Amino acid sequence: MKTIRNVTRRDFLKASGGLVLAVALPESLAQSGPGRTVLAGESAAAFTPNAFIRIGADNTVTVMVKHLEMGQGTYTGLPTLVAEELDADWSQIRAEGAPADAKQYNNLFWGPAQGTGGSTALPNSYEQLRKAGAAARVMLVAAAAEKWKVPAKEIRVSKGVVSHGNRKASFGELASDAAKQKVPEDVPLKDPKDFVYIGKPARRTDARAKSNGTALFTQDVKLPGMLTAVVLHPPRFGAKLKSFDAAKAKAVKGVQEVVAFSTPAADGVAVLAKDYWTAKKGRDALTAEWDDSSAFRLGSTEIMTEYKKLAATPGTSARKEGDADKALAGAAKTLEASYEFPYLAHAAMEPMNCVVKLDSNACEIWNGEQFQTVDQAAVAQILGLKPEQVKLNQLYAGGSFGRRANPKSDFLVEAGAIAKAIGGKAPVKLVWGREDDMKAGWYRPMYYHAIKAGLDAGGNLVAWKHTIVGQSILTGTAFESMMVKDGVDATSVEGAANLPYAIPNLAVELHSPKIGVPVQWWRSVGSTHTAFATECFLDEIARETRKDPYELRRALLTKHPRHKGVLELAAQKAGWGKPLPAGRARGIAVHESFNTFVAQVVEISGKKIERVVCAVDCGIAVNPNIIAMQMESGIGYGLSAALNGAITLKDGLVEQSNFHDYPVLRINQMPRIETFIVPSKEKPTGVGEPGTPVIAPALANALLALEGKPMRALPLSTQGLTFA
Amino acid sequence: MISLNVNGKRVQADAEADTPLLWVLRDYLDMTGTKFGCGLALCGACTVHVEGQPVRSCVTPASAVAGKKIITIETIGATKVGKAVQAAWVAENVPQCGYCQSGQVMAAAALLSVKTSPTDADIDAAMSGNICRCATYPRIRAAIKRASKGLQA
């Protein structure tokens, strides 16, 4: 056990210790990591020009990353921006999770809130962190100029070395003098032609710690005297705890506490012990009675039946151009199709968890934090504190895919409620088992899409009427006022309401029924279903009109050069149009989400995916390697859902519980993927999500080409299709 | 009290006999590199070596492996194969969220210990018990091949 000091921004500004904790943590913490803890003997920071950079006398440059690292590469991409303008050496860069402080670390695309999501981490930081790096560089140069008595403009900085003639100094050597310099305002940024790191594949800062077991996740936090809480949730959403019998749980040797809790997210009973296994045995022995009078009691079949009825009625308009109804009535030919989508669990590898330590007037949390400002407010509310009394320590997240940014801060408030229920007498680590995680809800909503198209005598697409039915994710969340307009949740229709194809009469309508199953954003959100419905239907139209699916898209995208650009690049690299051996086929799809454009071509032979070619336009490619990784990851995640992903309900009970009945993609099912990046001078856009929605329609379109049968429901396993 | 041989050291844990090895490692011995993912041997995040074989520690009672040689992610890098695997993992930028990677590294090290030049089919067979939700699979495959080359050089 080592005594460590948790670094907060105030700590390093004051360069004096604040919160002193004794924590048993893995040994090698002296590397990049969220909430990286500094060993007590470590030297104080010498130079902190702003909230994002700390340069130590030991020559390390620590970048405070305001966004959660959940796999998408923020701890590499964001430090790259600082390193670029600072002209640091990549080897001296460290990444550290910023504390919760919305004044300094808000997401610039979200206004006054701190949080990670919507593929915004890099784009919203692009100028902010470059400016931070450039300002620090100016101050280091000024320090050297003063020391060497030479004009600042004659000083060079390259790869972490400040030099003038034969004189050289490291950042560490100049740090304390740089700290005395005036913080400059409005520092010019580099001309992109001078970029050293942006555009190059810098190695991930977290690769080593994540290959040797030392990377620290919430699951790994252990505080002195801490108890692990394992919970019993009601079997149905919205059920209330009526009574429980703790006797059998307390009879398990080692069980210390059995307490009931009630949060805005769920009721439940927690069993606490020093270790998980004891607490789990206690939980399994517990019996409880639930009041189902306000619980959700329907099944997926009934929900879908209801959605189909709704789709036949007029919905709220999300887009209207021309007169789609009239154009359909007058069309030479009409086509229609409907698409069905199940609930999906995020199923991050690290089941939800949270560590809470309560003091009389404060609360400290350790968590892979994706939603700082919302979580602070929610935890404060349940504990009767002010948001600023809730201190959040950032850790790596073992995946999230949206899940750790919960609209009701569900697992955080649960951990808080349990800590309160035991009177704050011990720190609490809430650990959900896989089953708890999978059955807790907060799914990608079920959706039903119905689309009608009208063709003129020449086979041209003249009308498109698209009706979407599914729960609103944003209603009731912090984003409602910003993103639910005139009854239309932007995330329910994104990818459909902004359909890029040139169709003169186009209508998109939405129904947002209220269903008692908690739902949430899931990697690429609305595009998870809109891309499938629109891109598959377009291929059905191409087939009906005997047009090439690629050429049809090109013809309809003349006013959307970036869509067209990725489409053409993917087609070219995949050899679109070149003859294939018998039994093989290709499918193509293109989609924009979060301002990033992605096209994919899938080549299949029978039930095997031979190859996926992916083209992406995300503006300036800050790190091509991370972009490729995120395309691969998004494709794998989307393919997993397309093949097998489904959460189903029967009489209000979730039918899946673990990876045996919610199968996810494994290595033997992962296709070969080739990623190509469109060169661009546009501002960078995110890559965490946009690879995900394109794979399912590209695969379905390949199946349509091969077998002539359109895929109109996901997952494909429900269509009798399996892929090896 | 359970006596174990973990990473070359004899250790004792005051755990009940039915406690899975995973929780003895994590909660009693403070070795948190081995991860909890499913509790049912479905995801492989908890993979350790027992007498050189990859074992899912979440379903293996610690008492059942008393006295056997247990190696975890904390020391696999001290072996020639483990070191090569970890170096390849970094070189290929395999990890994303990283939560499954301890198990992946242990599974890969076990594979390369018995098959120095695994084919794609060998990799599928040995690694398909290890789930990665970030789908780092293509890089896992490339890293295993890189480590294999390194071990033969």
Please, could you describe this protein's structure?
The complex is a heterodimer of chains A (724) and B (153). Chain A has 724 residues and is α+β, with helices and mostly antiparallel strands. Chain A has 19 helices and 32 strands. In chain A, strands 13-14-11-21-18-19-20 form a seven-stranded mixed β-sheet, with helices on both faces. A five-stranded mixed β-sheet of chain A has the order 16-26-23-22-17. The radius of gyration of chain A is 27 Å and the shape is globular. Residues 1-43 of chain A have low confidence and may be disordered. With 153 residues, chain B is of the alpha+beta class. Chain B has six helices and five strands; from the N terminus they run ββαβββααααα. In chain B, β3 and β4 form a beta hairpin. In chain B, α3 crosses α6 (137-152). The radius of gyration of chain B is 15 Å and the shape is globular. Chain B starts with a strand and ends with a helix. The mean pLDDT of chain B is 97. Chains A and B meet through α7 and α18 of A and α1, α3, α4, α5 and α6 of B.
Task: Tell how many strands the DSSP assignment of chain A holds.
Answer: 32
For the largest beta-sheet of chain A, the strand count, sense and barrel status come to: 7 strands, mixed
- Could you report the average pLDDT of chain B, rounded to the nearest whole number? 97
- Note the run of SSEs of chain B as H and E: EEHEEEHHHHH
Helix content of chain B: 40-55%
Q: Please, how many helices of chain B?
A: 6
